[in-house]
Amino acid sequence: MKITALETLCLSRPHEVERQWVTSRYRTIKADCAIVVIHTDEGLTGIGEASAYGWPLKIREWVDWLAPEIVGADPRDPRIVPHPNGRDRAYDAAISGIDCALWDLVGKIEGKRTSELLTESPLQKVRLYASSGCRYDWRYNPEQLIEEALEYIDQGLTAMKFRIGTEWSWDGVTVDRFLGHVRELSQTVAGRMELMLDGNCRLTEEQALPIAKELDRLGFVWFEEPIARDNIEGYAKLRAAVEMDISGGEGFTTLEQFRPYLEKQAFDIVQPDAGVCGISE
């Protein structure tokens, strides 16, 4: 079997106004992603997501640039597997899409799921959590977060991760006000839903510490990327201050980017994203 072509599907979907995510850094009004499709001379195709965070046209350019090194090769040849370099997000996303598509293709050739290629005894079920809280607005309807949690409970979900809402500085949101909202949410879903918080790297150390301590007291599962991503010492201090897990790394594309966080015990949980760093890395 030989690879005959690489194709990149560039997809875009506008968000409804109520689902747009607004902070001082950006306004997310649509979802863009690229899907890499690897074609073969025997009709099988492999499909891989190349990041769900934008740049589809740039990703396609990188896939087209990389294609000549892969077309004509056997998809099972480990020498053709590309690796991210940590220098260009779109390049690494293209690499990830190709890598995931190769895993998908090899699985189809061997009649196995990707999980079965990774381990002899993969889990048959994986617990899901709702990834939410992107759209609650501190000015107009902060209660939307609690309403959203109750909707997920009605759908049968038993865990939810949420964010910290629209930009705090616009509406005078303080740590105390935020924690009051968190306590109300925790009390509302108590016994029915576990909770996690994603800070999206938006908090200072001074803000993150009291929040982490209160989340710990409330029994949160983890606190994800509360402070600036490059503040390794800050993460280590935060982790040492609480029993709750501190997590992060969803934007890292290479093993070397994770290394200092592990060496300094800054993370309890690392969160690599296959759409950003691929499966092989």
Question: What does this 3D model show about the protein?
Answer:
- By secondary structure, the chain is α/β, with parallel strands linked by helices.
- It folds into two domains: 3-118, Enolase-like, domain 1, CATH 3.30.390; 130-277, TIM Barrel (Alpha-Beta Barrel).
- It is built from ten helices and eleven strands.
- It has helices at 56-66, 89-110, 114-118, 144-154, 168-171, 175-189, 205-218, 232-241, 255-263, 274-277; strands spanning 3-14, 21-22, 27-28, 30-40, 45-50, 130-131, 159-162, 194-198, 222-224, 245-248, 269-270.
- A six-stranded parallel beta sheet has the order 6-7-8-9-10-11, covered by helices on one side. Strands 1-4-5 form a three-stranded antiparallel beta sheet.
- The longest helix has 22 residues, at 89-110.
- It starts with a strand and ends with a helix.
- The mean pLDDT is 94.
Q: Which terms summarize this structure?
A:
single chain; 281 residues; alpha/beta; Enolase-like, domain 1; TIM Barrel; 2 domains; 10 helices; 37% helix
Could you give the topology of this structure?
Elements: E1 3-14, E2 21-22, E3 27-28, E4 30-40, E5 45-50, H1 56-66, H2 89-110, H3 114-118, E6 130-131, H4 144-154, E7 159-162, H5 168-171, H6 175-189, E8 194-198, H7 205-218, E9 222-224, H8 232-241, E10 245-248, H9 255-263, E11 269-270, H10 274-277
Parallel strand pairs: 6-7, 7-8, 8-9, 9-10, 10-11
Antiparallel strand pairs: 1-4, 2-3, 4-5
Helix pairs in contact: 1-2, 4-6, 6-7
